[in-house]
Structure formats: C-alpha cells, structure tokens
Design goal:
Organism: Melia azedarach
Low-confidence stretches: 24-32, 146-150
Number of helices: 6
Number of strands: 0
Helix content: 55-70%
Largest sheet: none
Radius of gyration: 26 Å
Protein name: 2S albumin seed storage protein
Mean pLDDT: 79
Distance between the termini: 90 Å
C-alpha cells in the first residue's frame, strides 16, 4: 500500500513542478536604453522635447523664407540639427516618434511666426524626418495639418 502512495505523491510533485515551470515569466531589462518602457510623453521630455528637431524645422522654414538657395554655413548647421534630431528620435520608442514630431511642429506653430504656406511646408518637412533619418516609421509620419487654416 505504501508503494502506490509514494508513487502517487512523486507523480503529483512532478506535475506541480512541470506546471510551475510553464508559468515562469522572463523579464528582459534593456540596460543600454533606460528610457524604453516609459510613456511617450516621458520619453519625449527626456529627449528635451526634440529640441534639435524643432531647430531643424525652424531653420528649414527660415531658409525658405529668406534665401532659397541658402548659404553653406546655414546648410551645415541645418544638417547638424538634422543629425542630432535623428539621434533624439532614435532614443524614442518607434511608437512615440511621430507623436514627438507632432509636438515639435505644434511648438513651432505656437510661436506664431509662420505664414500659411510655411505651415504646410512645416508639416511636410516634419513628416519626412523619419525617412531622412532612415529610422522607423520609414514611410514617414502622417502628421495632420487639416486643423490648420492656410
């Protein structure tokens, strides 16, 4: 009688151990980028509200307004801001990049120094930044300028 009880107890322990291992969860921690996992707003704030993207957009509009052919120092500065903008976007989760660019555009809007056609250009330039940075979303962002009156 003892042998079947020992066998049954051993078998039950084996089933419990097997069942417990099924529910084990693996948690991976990305030590290289502690910003991941935070809300988009926190990530954008951590990246200085995408300050370099804002500066790139501002210079892009200014260069179109003042001097369409541009100077080489302006071009260099614009490229530098674009590179830094790409770095800031790279630090954001892919799902947060378009939201961050939308906020950068809104900040430019709030400064109130843009004319009608410049607003359209601002949205187009911002929506193409991910493509120019060669990061996701590669098709660019669908930033809605439909709320803007030209």
């Amino acid at each position: 009688m003892a042998k079947p009880t020992v066998f049954l107890a051993t078998f039950t322990l084996f089933l419990l151990a097997a069942n417990a291992s099924i529910y084990r969860t693996t948690v991976e921690i990305d030590d290289e980028n502690p910003i991941r996992g935070r809300s988009c707003q926190e990530q954008i704030q951590q990246q200085q509200q995408l300050r370099h993207c804002q500066m790139h957009l501002r210079q892009q509009i200014r260069s179109q307004r003042e001097e369409p052919w541009g100077s080489s120092s302006d071009d260099n500065q614009q490229q530098q801001h674009l590179r830094q903008c790409c770095q800031q976007l790279q630090e954001l989760d892919t799902r947060c990049r378009c939201q961050g660019l939308e906020q950068a555009v809104r900040r430019q809007e709030q400064q109130g120094q843009l004319r009608g056609q410049e607003m359209q250009q601002l949205y187009e330039t911002a929506s193409n930044i991910p493509r120019r940075c060669n990061i996701q979303p590669r098709q660019g962002c669908d930033l809605s300028s439909s709320n803007v009156s030209f």
